[in-house]
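Two proteins were folded this term; both appear here.
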Amino acid sequence: MGQIDASMTQVLLPRLEVEFGARLSSVSWVAVAYLLAMASFTPIFGRLADMVGRKLLYLGGFFLFIVGSGLCGFATDLPMLIFFRILQSIGAALLTSNSIAIIVMATGEEERGRGLGLQSAAQAVGLGAGPAVGGLILDTLGWQWAFWINVPMGLAGVILGWLLLPQTKALPATGRFDWYGALLIAPALTAVVAALNEGHAWGFASPALIGCAAFGIVFLALFVRTERRATSPLLDLHLLGRRAFLLGNAANFLAYAVLFGVFFLVPFALVRIYDDSALVAGLRLSILPVMLGLLAPVGGMLYDRLGARAPTSCGMLICIASLATIYFFLDGSAANLPLVTLALALFGVGQGLFISPNTSAIMATAPPEQTGQAGSVLNLVRLIGMSAGIAGASTLFAVGLGDTGGSTLNVPTSSLVASCRGVILLLGGLAALAGLISLIRPRGVAGRDAGAVHRSPIVE
């Protein structure tokens, strides 16, 4: 449900631009606000779950998710929709912060890999189906049903979870809750991403942008200072002192920024430049997560044999080649559209080869007693990367369109193509940086010697 919603929303954005008559940077908040709220609340709920147990919080996550989803469908304007998306994402954060721990708790040591593998398969299916399901809904039922479809699935999740999930037993002594860190993390992340997302609309020298950026930097500094001094922090930032952990997370941030930058840009390109219907655009976009899911196990096997450096570097090299193909052949010509679609599949291959070994390498650097903290940092970096990728792609896309009021409607094809190419150049540069970081990371050891978790390409 969560993965379908995350990938479906990207296909929804061009339609919302028309429905609400909003500029590009405003529409992008439908996706960005969701990811930002998840990034802010996931470490908080993960810490609370360690203190009070997981079952009730997990079922509460289902409840909040379906309430937020239902209200999203009734939204009458864009600010209302964004507010309800934040409510929905708080439920998603409750689910995300508990899902892997529940699987680990419910399976024995000998079945843990199989359990996590089944979860990864479900995530891959959700990511792959989301754009196609979203396109079908938009073409037949209306955009509201993209949210209402979550309600019956969520209710089924609540009922099954209540009946089947075990209660958490023998809770560890985890110390006091870090209230200062919890209060600082949300405004810090929101201010930084707001400055990135609204820079073009506000003006790059505007007091609003400068103030927002300064606010974000100050709150981030306060958050880092608080976490370093806390006896039981939300996030153990001392892990970033490990070079391999720091480099792996830097590459993680860049890879997800590139991935969701592509997820944001491609639906606009297909719908506005090629006049694809929402369903056709969704089907074309689906090939990316499908290939990612198929290649993630291959990346895990390569990590077992070769370590992380080779597969992650090759994965980013493939992503760069695919972005170069999109750059040259995304020109509005129907004859070149199959090559663009093929390049999306190639991009999914590259991401699949990268994400799984990189995740394994990050987790292998953490001591066993800090695995939970390492996973929290990894998830936070991943979500911030997604938010930054969408925000950066949205801003650069709007800048490239020139004096259009930040809208992609009624814009000449040549302007749309030029603007798309500018975003692709940015994403290619980020991918190259991720590849370079992968090349200079410490060699480490192979996955089977380091407690790898390569079976889960998308860690939650």
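Next, the second protein.
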Amino acid sequence: MSAPVVIFAVGNPSRGDDAIGPELYGRLEKWLQNQGLAEQFELIEDFQLQIEHALDLQGRQLALFIDAGENTPAPYTFKQIAPATGIAHTTHELPPEAVLQVYLQTEGSQPPPSFVLCVSGEKFELGEPLTATASGYVDAAFDLLMQLCRKAELAEWKRAVVQ
């Protein structure tokens, strides 16, 4: 049986602020364990989204995609998304909306309600560390993640939307 909520954390820890997703993944994994909430969530970390990630949406009640974004309002945006093609608001090739579209096409049904937490990043060069500014944004985003995970319900997540 699948955990009711799947959370994708996307990014490359070797590319400056692209490490935001993996950084939040690590913090969230520890926090969920400490809170006794780990069984309610499946965390998936990857460098970028692939069409195969559509399979990870099966049997879920909610899905969350975490990534860094260039030109994202600080400290982050949090919004609900729907299946679509050709939309890009993060630094990666396949946007979350496209993963939802693949699910819709392959499963013949709507994907679970899905959200994107896009954290503002500044520098994405290979070999660079997470910037101090992005680190502060990660702290703010983690506060939101804790709130979302304490009440992993669609109505609560909709109330938390920040664009």
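The mean pLDDT is 92. DSSP finds four helices and five strands in the chain. These notes refer to the second protein only.
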